[in-house]
Write a structure and sequence with these properties.
The protein is α/β, with parallel strands linked by helices and about 110 residues long. Strands 1-5-4-3-2 form a five-stranded mixed β-sheet. Helix 3 links the parallel strand 3 and strand 4. It is globular and about 30 Å long.
């Protein structure tokens, strides 16, 4: 699934690295604890989270996450956006809960 399709499924907005929105994503995960991302994520393309701090981007870089979906209307600040753009990580914001966003992506065919 392309990142721009992910944004559509979660009724979200792409707020950085739009040039990477045509990249394909094969799977998703949902975590708020970055230690869990480091411990359990393997070959995941999108991270769904309610945590909004620079550590999310740094963790995404370590495990090759190309897209982060921020749920519950949370929005990253300019410093986070600049950091993500350095690594071509796409940020999507949505008003959906983690549960709803993950469920919709799973129903649309994105693997866990």
């Amino acid at each position: 699934m392309k990142i721009k399709e992910i944004a559509s499924v979660v009724e979200g907005s792409i707020i950085c690295s739009p040039a990477a929105a045509d990249n394909d994503i094969a799977s998703a995960c949902a975590f708020d604890m970055m230690s869990d991302v480091l411990a359990y994520v393997r070959d995941q393309g999108v991270l769904i989270t309610g945590l909004v701090n620079p550590q999310v981007v740094r963790t995404a870089v370590m495990v090759d996450i190309g897209c982060i979906v921020f749920v519950c209307g949370k929005k990253p600040d300019e410093d986070m956006i600049k950091l993500a753009e350095n690594y071509d990580i796409v940020f999507i914001t949505t008003d959906m809960s983690t549960y709803e966003a993950a469920g919709r992506l799973y129903a649309a065919g994105l693997a866990a």
